[in-house]
Design goal:
Three copies of one chain form a homotrimer. Chain A is of the alpha+beta class. Helix content of chain A is 23%, strand content 43%. At the B-C interface, strand 2 and strand 7 of B face strand 1, strand 2, helix 2 and strand 6 of C. Bound molecules: nickel (II) ion (NI) (3 copies). Chains A, B, C: It holds the Pfam family CdAMP_rec.
Chain lengths: 109, 109, 109
Amino acid sequence: MKLLIAIVQDKDANRLSNQFIDNDIRATRLSTTGGFLKSGNTTFMIGLEDERVDEVLDMIKAASHTRQQFMTPPVNLDAQLDSTSSYPVEVQVGGATVFVLPVDQFHRF
Amino acid sequence: MKLLIAIVQDKDANRLSNQFIDNDIRATRLSTTGGFLKSGNTTFMIGLEDERVDEVLDMIKAASHTRQQFMTPPVNLDAQLDSTSSYPVEVQVGGATVFVLPVDQFHRF
Amino acid sequence: MKLLIAIVQDKDANRLSNQFIDNDIRATRLSTTGGFLKSGNTTFMIGLEDERVDEVLDMIKAASHTRQQFMTPPVNLDAQLDSTSSYPVEVQVGGATVFVLPVDQFHRF
Ligand code: NI
Ligand code: NI
Ligand code: NI
């Protein structure tokens, strides 16, 4: 038995949560904040048999790894004449941090 | 030293919290959500000497194990003529998930 | 690799959070409640290389250890004639509980 603690961006959390449900993985969800920008993120606690750990790590990685995304910046009304302001820009989104913890005992009552 | 992480239903959390206080057990409480219905639950983090683990597991089990309860469904105003709608029905409530984690160091400052 | 779980008073949390940022320590922050008075506190989860554990324990201790502080009690409008009510009194503030947990695997995606 292991306890996975996975911290993901809020924008990736719902998709991941649905995948857990589809795969019969019971996850408990916490609202957390983190890092320099104090942005909201989501922490999942997931109890797992050892033989399912890799499968769930792959799922988390696929749903929330760091990637580049094109985003159209919001129009700045004070700069209407600056025609560059509405071009899409490439930003980095996603990213996950996962701890796999040993478990001495697991109980369901 | 162990760290217990116990996830219980919100409706069982206050009673359990009072029992912890009565028994000098320091618990930190988190608001969490979980499972298919995204229902609210409560997670307790409890640091314990090894010899108190079984006592606290028993306490959690007694306060929050899965059990049947009779509940009167709310009256449905659109179905006033259906006389069955106010009969009590048996529903399953409660249930707890507990992880007992090993601890390398414990400090109180 | 270790996972530190540190529970501190809300009033000490922002200072500590800034120190973590200044020292390139990534911490995830949870809103929690605890103890007899159900006062709000803050829990930090911090993943650390073994060789940084002592440094971070010192940081947590310095920022949030139990200490005496003088506080002027709020003026009680019903007791305006009681001249003792506005004298500063000594109260105990702060205090931190820290668990250092072993980690089997750590991933950043
Ligand atoms: Ni991808
Ligand atoms: Ni019972
Ligand atoms: Ni000091």
